[in-house]
Design brief:
Structural class: mainly alpha
Number of strands: 0
Shape: globular
Order of helices and strands: HHHHHHHHHHHHHHHH
Largest sheet: none
Distance between the termini: 58 Å
Strand content: under 5%
Length: 234
Protein backbone atom coordinates (compact mmCIF):
# COMPACT_ATOMS: atom_id res chain seq x y z
CA UNK A 1 0.00 0.00 0.00
CA UNK A 2 1.30 3.44 -0.91
CA UNK A 3 1.91 6.17 1.65
CA UNK A 4 -0.57 8.29 -0.30
CA UNK A 5 -3.36 5.73 0.27
CA UNK A 6 -2.50 5.42 3.95
CA UNK A 7 -2.70 9.16 4.38
CA UNK A 8 -6.01 9.29 2.54
CA UNK A 9 -7.44 6.73 4.97
CA UNK A 10 -6.11 8.66 7.96
CA UNK A 11 -7.61 11.84 6.61
CA UNK A 12 -10.98 10.09 6.35
CA UNK A 13 -10.81 9.16 10.04
CA UNK A 14 -9.69 12.51 11.40
CA UNK A 15 -11.71 14.63 13.81
CA UNK A 16 -10.90 18.28 14.48
CA UNK A 17 -12.69 18.15 17.83
CA UNK A 18 -10.70 15.14 19.02
CA UNK A 19 -7.53 16.69 17.63
CA UNK A 20 -8.01 19.77 19.82
CA UNK A 21 -8.61 17.57 22.86
CA UNK A 22 -5.51 15.48 22.13
CA UNK A 23 -3.35 18.56 21.72
CA UNK A 24 -4.37 19.61 25.22
CA UNK A 25 -3.96 16.11 26.67
CA UNK A 26 -0.49 15.62 25.20
CA UNK A 27 0.74 19.04 26.36
CA UNK A 28 1.57 20.62 23.02
CA UNK A 29 1.69 24.22 24.22
CA UNK A 30 4.83 26.41 24.37
CA UNK A 31 7.39 24.99 26.79
CA UNK A 32 5.43 21.77 27.34
CA UNK A 33 6.83 18.32 26.62
CA UNK A 34 4.84 17.89 23.40
CA UNK A 35 5.34 21.44 22.15
CA UNK A 36 4.28 21.87 18.54
CA UNK A 37 2.98 18.33 18.01
CA UNK A 38 0.06 18.11 15.60
CA UNK A 39 -2.87 15.70 15.76
CA UNK A 40 -5.46 14.41 13.34
CA UNK A 41 -7.80 13.29 16.12
CA UNK A 42 -7.87 9.56 15.31
CA UNK A 43 -8.69 6.99 17.97
CA UNK A 44 -5.99 4.45 18.86
CA UNK A 45 -8.30 1.45 18.20
CA UNK A 46 -8.81 2.76 14.68
CA UNK A 47 -5.04 2.99 14.19
CA UNK A 48 -4.59 -0.57 15.46
CA UNK A 49 -7.29 -1.75 13.05
CA UNK A 50 -5.44 -0.12 10.19
CA UNK A 51 -2.27 -2.00 11.11
CA UNK A 52 -4.11 -5.22 10.34
CA UNK A 53 -5.43 -3.85 7.08
CA UNK A 54 -2.11 -2.43 5.89
CA UNK A 55 -0.34 -5.77 5.63
CA UNK A 56 1.84 -4.73 2.70
CA UNK A 57 3.50 -1.72 4.36
CA UNK A 58 7.29 -2.05 4.27
CA UNK A 59 9.92 -0.98 6.78
CA UNK A 60 10.93 1.86 4.47
CA UNK A 61 7.34 3.09 4.21
CA UNK A 62 6.86 2.89 7.96
CA UNK A 63 9.99 5.00 8.44
CA UNK A 64 8.60 7.59 6.03
CA UNK A 65 5.44 7.75 8.15
CA UNK A 66 7.50 7.90 11.33
CA UNK A 67 9.14 11.11 10.13
CA UNK A 68 5.77 12.82 9.77
CA UNK A 69 4.85 15.95 11.76
CA UNK A 70 1.47 14.32 12.50
CA UNK A 71 1.28 12.36 15.72
CA UNK A 72 -1.06 9.64 14.49
CA UNK A 73 1.09 8.96 11.45
CA UNK A 74 4.07 8.43 13.74
CA UNK A 75 2.06 6.18 16.05
CA UNK A 76 0.75 4.15 13.12
CA UNK A 77 4.30 3.81 11.82
CA UNK A 78 5.50 2.43 15.15
CA UNK A 79 2.58 0.00 15.42
CA UNK A 80 3.42 -1.25 11.94
CA UNK A 81 7.08 -1.59 12.90
CA UNK A 82 6.11 -3.61 15.97
CA UNK A 83 4.08 -5.97 13.73
CA UNK A 84 6.88 -6.26 11.17
CA UNK A 85 9.39 -6.89 13.94
CA UNK A 86 7.29 -9.61 15.56
CA UNK A 87 6.92 -11.44 12.23
CA UNK A 88 10.46 -10.84 11.04
CA UNK A 89 13.47 -13.12 10.90
CA UNK A 90 16.71 -12.29 12.68
CA UNK A 91 17.90 -9.95 9.92
CA UNK A 92 14.59 -8.09 9.79
CA UNK A 93 14.53 -7.67 13.57
CA UNK A 94 18.05 -6.21 13.47
CA UNK A 95 17.04 -3.83 10.68
CA UNK A 96 14.02 -2.56 12.62
CA UNK A 97 15.90 -2.27 15.92
CA UNK A 98 18.65 -0.21 14.30
CA UNK A 99 16.15 1.95 12.41
CA UNK A 100 14.26 2.55 15.64
CA UNK A 101 17.34 3.83 17.48
CA UNK A 102 18.37 5.93 14.49
CA UNK A 103 14.99 7.69 14.52
CA UNK A 104 14.30 8.30 18.20
CA UNK A 105 13.89 12.03 17.53
CA UNK A 106 10.54 11.12 15.96
CA UNK A 107 9.50 8.85 18.87
CA UNK A 108 8.81 11.98 20.84
CA UNK A 109 5.86 11.46 23.12
CA UNK A 110 5.11 9.02 25.90
CA UNK A 111 2.46 7.03 24.03
CA UNK A 112 4.82 6.51 21.10
CA UNK A 113 7.50 5.17 23.44
CA UNK A 114 5.11 3.02 25.42
CA UNK A 115 3.63 1.40 22.30
CA UNK A 116 6.97 0.28 20.93
CA UNK A 117 10.00 0.31 23.23
CA UNK A 118 9.56 -3.02 25.00
CA UNK A 119 8.31 -4.73 21.85
CA UNK A 120 11.31 -3.69 19.76
CA UNK A 121 14.21 -2.53 21.93
CA UNK A 122 13.49 -4.82 24.88
CA UNK A 123 12.87 -7.86 22.74
CA UNK A 124 15.94 -7.31 20.58
CA UNK A 125 18.22 -6.94 23.59
CA UNK A 126 16.75 -9.91 25.43
CA UNK A 127 19.56 -12.24 24.32
CA UNK A 128 22.20 -9.58 23.64
CA UNK A 129 24.30 -7.05 25.50
CA UNK A 130 22.15 -4.54 27.35
CA UNK A 131 24.66 -1.71 26.81
CA UNK A 132 22.34 0.23 24.48
CA UNK A 133 19.89 0.60 27.36
CA UNK A 134 22.45 2.42 29.46
CA UNK A 135 23.42 4.70 26.60
CA UNK A 136 19.74 5.64 26.28
CA UNK A 137 19.42 6.09 30.05
CA UNK A 138 22.29 8.57 29.99
CA UNK A 139 20.89 10.55 27.06
CA UNK A 140 20.02 14.24 27.29
CA UNK A 141 16.82 13.44 25.39
CA UNK A 142 13.74 12.85 27.54
CA UNK A 143 12.25 10.28 25.17
CA UNK A 144 15.43 8.23 24.87
CA UNK A 145 15.56 8.03 28.67
CA UNK A 146 11.92 6.89 28.73
CA UNK A 147 12.73 4.28 26.07
CA UNK A 148 15.51 2.95 28.31
CA UNK A 149 13.20 2.15 31.22
CA UNK A 150 10.09 1.12 29.26
CA UNK A 151 12.18 -1.27 27.13
CA UNK A 152 12.89 -3.26 30.30
CA UNK A 153 9.21 -4.18 30.53
CA UNK A 154 10.10 -7.02 28.16
CA UNK A 155 12.60 -8.37 30.71
CA UNK A 156 10.17 -7.89 33.60
CA UNK A 157 7.61 -10.07 31.85
CA UNK A 158 10.29 -12.79 31.67
CA UNK A 159 11.00 -12.50 35.40
CA UNK A 160 14.28 -10.62 34.86
CA UNK A 161 14.56 -7.51 37.01
CA UNK A 162 18.24 -6.54 37.22
CA UNK A 163 18.32 -4.14 34.27
CA UNK A 164 15.09 -2.45 35.33
CA UNK A 165 16.56 -1.77 38.75
CA UNK A 166 19.89 -0.57 37.36
CA UNK A 167 18.23 1.80 34.89
CA UNK A 168 15.89 2.98 37.64
CA UNK A 169 18.91 3.86 39.78
CA UNK A 170 20.37 5.92 36.93
CA UNK A 171 17.09 7.79 36.55
CA UNK A 172 16.43 8.43 40.25
CA UNK A 173 17.67 12.01 39.97
CA UNK A 174 15.96 12.74 36.65
CA UNK A 175 14.10 16.05 36.62
CA UNK A 176 11.31 15.05 34.25
CA UNK A 177 7.93 14.01 35.63
CA UNK A 178 7.38 11.66 32.70
CA UNK A 179 10.51 9.75 33.70
CA UNK A 180 9.37 9.62 37.33
CA UNK A 181 6.07 8.08 36.20
CA UNK A 182 7.75 5.58 33.89
CA UNK A 183 10.25 4.40 36.50
CA UNK A 184 7.54 4.13 39.15
CA UNK A 185 5.38 2.14 36.76
CA UNK A 186 8.18 -0.32 35.96
CA UNK A 187 9.00 -0.75 39.65
CA UNK A 188 5.32 -1.49 40.27
CA UNK A 189 5.43 -4.11 37.51
CA UNK A 190 8.46 -5.70 39.18
CA UNK A 191 6.51 -5.78 42.43
CA UNK A 192 3.56 -7.54 40.81
CA UNK A 193 5.90 -10.43 40.04
CA UNK A 194 8.26 -10.27 43.00
CA UNK A 195 7.30 -7.89 45.78
CA UNK A 196 10.43 -8.64 47.80
CA UNK A 197 12.64 -7.40 44.93
CA UNK A 198 10.68 -4.18 44.60
CA UNK A 199 10.67 -3.53 48.34
CA UNK A 200 14.39 -4.16 48.61
CA UNK A 201 14.92 -1.45 46.00
CA UNK A 202 12.45 0.91 47.66
CA UNK A 203 13.95 0.53 51.13
CA UNK A 204 17.31 1.59 49.73
CA UNK A 205 16.05 4.48 47.63
CA UNK A 206 12.57 5.65 48.63
CA UNK A 207 13.83 8.60 50.69
CA UNK A 208 15.63 10.04 47.66
CA UNK A 209 13.00 9.15 45.06
CA UNK A 210 10.89 11.88 43.48
CA UNK A 211 7.45 11.79 45.06
CA UNK A 212 5.66 10.92 41.83
CA UNK A 213 8.01 8.00 41.20
CA UNK A 214 7.39 6.66 44.69
CA UNK A 215 3.61 7.06 44.42
CA UNK A 216 3.53 5.15 41.14
CA UNK A 217 5.76 2.41 42.55
CA UNK A 218 3.61 1.80 45.64
CA UNK A 219 0.22 2.44 44.07
CA UNK A 220 -0.97 -1.15 44.61
CA UNK A 221 0.42 -1.56 48.12
CA UNK A 222 -1.99 -2.02 51.04
CA UNK A 223 -2.92 1.44 52.31
CA UNK A 224 -1.11 1.02 55.63
CA UNK A 225 2.10 -0.01 53.89
CA UNK A 226 1.73 2.75 51.31
CA UNK A 227 1.41 5.39 54.03
CA UNK A 228 4.52 4.07 55.77
CA UNK A 229 6.55 4.76 52.65
CA UNK A 230 4.96 8.15 52.07
CA UNK A 231 5.58 9.22 55.67
CA UNK A 232 9.09 7.76 55.80
CA UNK A 233 8.29 5.25 58.52
CA UNK A 234 9.95 2.23 56.90
Amino acid sequence: MSIKKIREELKRLKSEERARALQRFFKTGPGQYGEGDRFLGIRVPDLRRLVGEFQSVTVAESLELLRSPLHEERLLALLVMVRLYAKGDRARKKEIFEAYLENTRFINNWDLVDASASQIVGDYLSDRSRKPLYALAGSSDLWERRISIIATFHFIRRGEFDDTLKVAEILLSDREDLIHKAVGWMLREVGKRNLAVEEDFLKRHYAAMPRTMLRYAIEKFPETRRQMYLKGNI
